[in-house]
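pls design
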C-alpha cells in the first residue's frame, strides 16, 4: 500500500471513530483495525494517538489555511481586502470544525479538548500570514502598527473564539457586536479612520 494512502487511512479511521466514540475510549489498536492495517504500521507514521489527532486536525482545516497563505502573497490585492478574506477563512474553518463535533452533553469534555487542538492549529498557522499582510500594508504606508505579530494574534484569538461559538456561546447579534468591536480595535491599531474597515464585517 502506498505510504500516503496508508497515512490517510489512519487519519480516516480516527475521524470515523470520533463520530461515535470519545477520544479517550479509542485505542491505537482500534484505529489500526478500523484502518485495516497492522498496529505496527501506525507507529511507523505516528508516535502516539495524540500525534494522529494532531495530523487529523491539521488535515481537516488545512484548506482555508492554504488559501490564506496564498492570499498573503497576492500583493496586487489591497492588504485590507486580504484581511477580510482571512476573516472569511476563519469563519469557514470554524464551520468545518463545528460540523465534526458531537452535540451530546456527555461529549462536552471531548469537544473542549478537540477545540483546544483546533484553536492552537488555526492561530499558530494564520498568525504569520496575517502579520505578513499587516507588514505589507506598513510598507505601502497604508497601515501604521508597531507590533504586527501581536496585533495579528489578538485578532485571530477573538475571531476563533467567537466564530466557533463553543467556548463562549453567543447569539448572532452578540457575535456581530464583538466582531464590530474587533474591527474598531483594528482600525485604531493600524491608525485608520473609524468606520474605514467596516467592510471586513461583510465577510462574516
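designed seq:
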Amino acid at each position: 500500500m502506498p505510504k500516503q494512502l496508508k497515512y490517510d487511512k489512519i487519519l480516516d479511521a480516527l475521524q470515523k471513530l470520533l463520530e461515535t466514540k470519545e477520544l479517550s475510549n479509542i485505542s491505537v489498536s482500534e484505529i489500526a483495525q478500523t484502518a485495516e492495517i497492522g498496529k505496527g504500521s501506525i507507529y511507523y507514521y505516528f508516535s502516539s494517538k495524540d500525534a494522529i489527532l494532531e495530523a487529523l486536525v491539521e488535515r481537516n482545516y488545512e484548506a482555508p489555511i492554504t488559501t490564506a497563505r496564498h492570499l498573503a502573497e497576492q500583493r496586487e490585492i489591497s492588504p485590507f481586502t486580504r484581511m477580510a478574506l482571512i476573516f472569511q477563512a476563519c469563519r469557514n474553518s470554524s464551520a468545518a470544525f463545528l460540523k465534526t463535533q458531537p452535540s451530546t452533553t456527555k461529549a462536552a469534555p471531548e469537544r473542549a479538548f478537540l477545540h483546544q487542538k483546533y484553536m492552537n492549529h488555526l492561530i499558530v498557522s494564520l498568525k504569520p500570514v496575517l502579520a505578513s499582510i499587516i507588514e505589507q500594508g506598513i510598507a505601502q504606508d497604508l497601515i501604521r502598527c508597531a507590533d504586527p505579530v501581536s496585533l495579528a494574534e489578538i485578532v485571530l484569538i477573538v475571531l476563533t473564539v467567537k466564530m466557533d461559538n463553543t467556548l463562549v456561546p453567543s447569539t448572532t447579534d452578540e457575535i456581530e457586536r464583538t466582531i464590530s468591536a474587533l474591527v474598531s480595535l483594528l482600525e485604531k491599531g493600524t491608525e485608520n479612520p473609524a468606520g474605514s474597515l467596516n467592510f471586513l464585517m461583510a465577510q462574516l
